[in-house]
């Protein structure tokens, strides 16, 4: 006689199913919550599990994640309301044998149970292989976490471009918003090139001061300037034979751009205060979150230097445009955070994944990584729940709606009143500008404050004053 576990929090409905299945000679144990279902699995062996998706203390997926975490392979059928079918389909990708929608038809559920048990051996063999493969992949991810390729069409295109340009000696420009992984792409180019066993040197051009940028990049001789107490090799010499990555190249001081042009053209450099020319063999990869042609037209970046760099370019898509990758990246970062904290967190609740898919991620992968480190710390159970998310993410839709509503209020304010009240005119214009800038920068408040030429605290105060938060 096959032994089934039924996890359903509706006691009346559970009793009906239990009676029906016992009538057809199945041994049935009923449980009414996630926790009691997990306890039952800990202490018993079952041929099949009937699992309700929505339970009083959580979701059926938590039971499923526990099964996988224990290395068990038990055919599981999810019972779900019609509105949760999309979630049930997603659950099937996690290893659910099948799902059935409520209200249940007796003949349908009986046929599905017989079919699942008849194919149990094949299911167990397949699931065990999936578990082993999953553990192997997780270890590989943890061991090589610097670059995640993704599975979206956009990710595949970037991967293809990396494979194409990496074996060459071309200079490369990587474009992308802050946090999209430009340095990771530069690493991938280096690691797949003939220079992979030579140095990879990363330089944040935004951190170079106008006074010392030349010294940092090209080195200096002893006594070249006040404080130069000894000879120093620059980043280019340190990268000799390998790759130098110049991040946020647009922030490089203009005077230094002139010196850099000569180095790029002639592959020779001189220390600051020195006369000896030093040969260098360095591949140059640069990155920018702005189009270099645009800032070049503003006189902030040398056009001739741009053309030297522009032998090949790669454009990275923002996270919000890589829908298929969002859950993949989230799980990757959760694996890393869980391992670091020594926790066993197996995934995210469907509600959290819905929030992730709708949020615009202005900080992209860097923001997601930091958010998930935080939620992993706050999570006590096996799945990340909504209450662990930062307020600005879980209430993002509401915040966006309020901003846009405020913009409409400002735009449609009674003109007669505004004309008679200069203070109102100024206030309305100010907040209309703030809202428009926030939209332009995808509601990234740090960027908005920079564009508006105010600090972040002032921006928050103005938003609160306007009752937008």
Provide an overview of this structure.
It is a single chain. This protein has 469 residues and is α/β, with parallel strands linked by helices. Helices cover 52% and strands 13% of the residues. The protein contains 22 helices and 16 strands. The strands form five sheets. A five-stranded parallel beta sheet has the order 2-1-3-6-7, with helices on both faces. The protein has a five-stranded parallel beta sheet with strand order 9-10-13-8-14. Strands 4-5 form a two-stranded antiparallel sheet. Helix 4 links the parallel strand 6 (76-80) and strand 7. Helix 21 packs across helix 22 (456-465).
Q: In which order are the strands of the major sheet placed?
A: 2-1-3-6-7
Shape: elongated
Average pLDDT confidence is 80
Calculate the terminal CA-CA distance, rounded to whole Å: 60 Å
Note the main sheet. Answer: 5 strands, parallel
Which band does the percent of strand residues land in? Answer: 5-15%
What structural category do the secondary elements indicate? alpha/beta
């Amino acid at each position: 006689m096959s032994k089934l576990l039924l996890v359903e929090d509706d006691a009346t409905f559970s009793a009906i199913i239990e009676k029906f299945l016992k009538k057809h000679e199945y041994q049935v144990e009923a449980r009414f919550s996630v926790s009691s279902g997990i306890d039952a699995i800990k202490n018993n062996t079952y041929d099949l599990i009937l699992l309700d998706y929505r339970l009083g203390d959580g979701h059926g997926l938590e039971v499923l994640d526990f099964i996988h975490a224990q290395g068990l392979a038990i055919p599981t059928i999810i019972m779900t309301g019609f509105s949760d079918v999309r979630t049930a389909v997603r659950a099937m990708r996690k290893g659910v044998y099948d799902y059935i929608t409520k209200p249940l038809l007796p003949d349908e559920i009986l046929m599905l149970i017989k079919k699942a048990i008849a194919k149990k051996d094949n299911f167990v063999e397949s699931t065990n292989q999936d578990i082993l493969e999953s553990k192997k992949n997780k270890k590989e991810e943890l061991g090589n976490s610097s670059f995640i390729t993704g599975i979206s069409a956009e990710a595949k295109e970037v991967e293809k471009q990396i494979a194409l340009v990496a074996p060459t000696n071309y200079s490369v420009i990587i474009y992308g918003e802050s946090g999209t992984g430009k340095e990771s792409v530069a690493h991938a180019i280096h690691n797949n090139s003939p220079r992979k066993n030579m140095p990879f040197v990363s330089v944040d051009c935004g951190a170079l001061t106008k006074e010392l940028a030349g010294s940092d990049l090209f080195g200096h001789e002893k006594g070249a300037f006040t404080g130069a107490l000894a000879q120093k090799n620059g980043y280019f010499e340190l990268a000799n034979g390998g790759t130098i990555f110049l991040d946020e190249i647009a922030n490089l001081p203009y005077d230094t751009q002139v010196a850099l042009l000569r180095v790029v053209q002639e592959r020779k450099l001189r220390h600051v205060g020195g006369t000896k020319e030093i040969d260098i063999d360095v591949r140059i990869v640069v990155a920018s979150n702005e189009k270099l042609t645009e800032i070049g037209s503003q006189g902030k970046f040398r056009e001739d230097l741009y053309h030297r760099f522009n032998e090949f370019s790669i454009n990275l898509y923002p996270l919000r445009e890589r829908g298929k990758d969002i859950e993949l990246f989230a799980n990757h970062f959760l694996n890393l955070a869980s391992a670091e904290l020594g926790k066993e967190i197996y995934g995210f609740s469907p509600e959290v994944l819905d929030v992730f898919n709708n949020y615009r991620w202005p900080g992209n992968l860097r923001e997601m990584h930091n958010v998930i480190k935080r939620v992993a710390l706050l999570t006590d159970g096996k799945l990340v729940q909504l209450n662990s998310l930062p307020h600005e993410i879980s209430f993002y839709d509401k915040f966006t709606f309020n901003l846009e509503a405020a913009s409409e209020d400002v735009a449609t304010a009674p003109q007669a009143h505004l004309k008679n009240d200069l203070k109102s005119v100024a206030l309305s214009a100010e907040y209309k500008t703030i809202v428009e800038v926030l939209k332009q920068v995808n509601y990234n408040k740090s960027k908005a404050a920079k564009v508006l030429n105010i600090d972040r605290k002032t921006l928050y105060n103005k938003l609160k004053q306007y009752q937008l938060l």
